[in-house]
Amino acid sequence: MFDEKTVLRIPGPTPVPPEVTRAMTHSMIGHRSGDFSTLFKEVQENLRELFQTSGDVAVIAGTGTAGLEAAVYSMVQQGDRVLAISTGNFGDRFTDIARRTESEVLTMNCEWGTSANVQEIVETLQQYPDIQVVLLTHCETSTGVLNDVKEIARVTHEHGAYLIVDAVSSFVGSPLLMDEWHVDIVVTGSQKALGLPPGLALVAMGPRAIERMKEGPAARSFYFDLRRYQKDISASTTPWTPPVSLIYGLRQSVSMILAEGLQKTQDRHRLLRDMTRAGIRALGLTLMVEDDHMASHTVTTVFVNHADEVRKIMKNDLHLAVAGGQKQLAGKIIRIGHMGYVDASDVLQCLATLEIALVKTGYDITLGTGVGAAAEVYVHAENTRN
Ligand SMILES: Cc1ncc(COP(=O)(O)O)c(C=O)c1O
């Protein structure tokens, strides 16, 4: 009966709004046509607003990793010293991408579950004055940590280096004022808070990044050479055949976020985070990220006994999927995604489902405790009306 029913509370892919699904059924158009240019121009203008940049946003057929690879291959030049800050699994992947360039990669590995220490970054920058590029993950999806992009961008800019931020799982969920904070490149993917299917990478290039790429040698990668994408944006097109249907979906998703208002979208994500955390705490479970200031607005990580069994019950019996831990966290945590097309009732449903699975696996909790605590947060929050 429920073969195709799965409520996605994983940190991506996320539920796709029906309006976006409908938009993607638009009949096919030629990508070198005036119709496509009109579509792409509108998308480009709206994306600049969401990224908070006066620069350009490359729309690449590929997932978030493709965007990270494009950013690194286009920005890092032979012989550069790169500081790769890693706070978890996705930071490690970002580091691996940089290691494939002909650069000197310096790694700063932070304890999983903690955010990057700004003072330590300042000291590293002082110790290595020739660091030209810094890589940072905004929301580390494997641990649920949110890094302080604003401060790290400030010290990186003061040092004269370029900052590339992986905002794959934080984009539009958490504030990121690209130009104002001096972030040079921001990368995201379609299947997170944008509420699209997987398949699009967006790479926002600020004015300084555009200058560096123009002056530098050609990127080592052909497909992922951001200069090609940037050059074509002024003609409202893309260098290679774009995924037209996804771009129709992107236009719809972006316009829905702008209609809600970026600030309101971010406030909603923060509220969902606060509700989730209140529910988890009321159940007596341990959050992986105890400090609210370091906690992601889009994914919450929780230590749970028999985590995989709990997930299985939630998925098989109640058709709600949460994610498990990665690498050394496998079997130890669950990761609850609350990003994109998600509202307060979705969080209540997720907590209710979790509570049932906890009881079934032997937890001594009173059903409704987590749901009640989350509902309290909602009731006392301001501006929850649409
Ligand atoms: C922070 C972060 N970076 C990078 C990625 C990789 O993105 P993709 O799987 O779309 O290539 C993810 C995916 O979950 C992510 O959460």
UniProtKB/TrEMBL annotation:
Ranges of residues in domain Aminotransferase class V: 22-340
Keywords: Aminotransferase, Pyridoxal phosphate, Transferase
Annotated positions of the N6-(pyridoxal phosphate)lysine modification: K192
EC number: 2.6.1.51
Residues spanning the membrane: none
Protein family per UniProt: Belongs to the class-V pyridoxal-phosphate-dependent aminotransferase family.
InterPro entries: Aminotrans_V_dom, Aminotrans_V_PyrdxlP_BS, PyrdxlP-dep_Trfase, PyrdxlP-dep_Trfase_major, PyrdxlP-dep_Trfase_small, SP_NH2Trfase/AEP_transaminase
A Gene Ontology molecular function term of the record: L-serine-pyruvate transaminase activity
Keyword Transferase: yes
PANTHER family linked to this entry: ALANINE--GLYOXYLATE AMINOTRANSFERASE, AMINOTRANSFERASE CLASS V
Pfam family, one: Aminotran_5
GO biological process, any: glycine biosynthetic process, by transamination of glyoxylate
Protein name per Swiss-Prot or TrEMBL: Serine-pyruvate aminotransferase
Signal peptide limits: none
Class of enzymatic activity (EC top level): transferase
Cofactor: pyridoxal 5'-phosphate
Entry binding sites for substrate: R335
